[in-house]
Amino acid sequence: MSYAISVNGQIHHVEDDGQTPLLWVLRDTLKLTGTKYGCGVAQCGACTVHVDGTPMRSCTLPLEVASSARITTIESVEGVEAQAIRDAWVARDVPQCGFCQSGQIMSAVALLRTLKTPTDRDIDVAMSGNICRCATYNRIRAAIHDAAAQLGAAR
C-alpha cells in the first residue's frame, strides 16, 4: 500500500506495509539513518523521534499510524532548544560510544520545549526511557541543566 508521510517537513510517498515500524521506513526506505535500532520493543530510546512534537519510539510505531502525523528526526530537529542541547552536549563531552545520542537529544529537546527550568527529577523522568550503554547519565543531566541555563540567559 502507498502512504504519504510527513518527515522533516517533506511529504514522502512510500510503498511499505502499514504495519512496518516507522523506524524501518526512516532507515531503509528514506535512508535517514540517524535514528537508531536498539531493542525493537520501545525500551531503550535509541529510536526516539518527534511525532507531532512529542518524543516517541519509532521501533513500535506502525507506518499507518505515523502517516497521519508530522515526524521529525535527529537529522532536522531545529530551534533554540535543539541548538542549546547540541552546544551543551559538546561542552560536557556527553557521548562516549554515541549510539544512544540521537534518541537522548530528541528526548532532551522535547523536555526543554515543555519545561524551561527542569529539576533533576524532571530530567530523570523525561530521560528515563533512554538507555545509555556507557552510563553517561550524570553528564546528560548536567548538559540539560546547562542548556536550560543558556536558554534562560537568552530570554
TrEMBL record:
Positions of transmembrane segments: none
The organism of origin for this protein: Phyllobacterium salinisoli
Disulfide bond keyword on record: no
Keyword hit for Iron-sulfur: yes
Sequence ranges assigned to domain 2Fe-2S ferredoxin-type in this UniProt record: 1-77
UniProt GO molecular function: 2 iron, 2 sulfur cluster binding; metal ion binding; oxidoreductase activity
Keyword set, alphabetical order: 2Fe-2S, Iron, Iron-sulfur, Metal-binding, Oxidoreductase
Domain of life the protein comes from: Bacteria
Pfam families: Fer2, Fer2_2
Protein's name according to its UniProt entry: (2Fe-2S)-binding protein
Alphabetical list of InterPro entries matching this protein: 2Fe-2S-bd (IPR002888), 2Fe-2S-bd_dom_sf (IPR036884), 2Fe-2S_ferredoxin-like_sf (IPR036010), 2Fe-2S_ferredoxin-type (IPR001041), 2Fe2S_fd_BS (IPR006058), Beta-grasp_dom_sf (IPR012675), Diverse_Oxidoreductases (IPR051452)
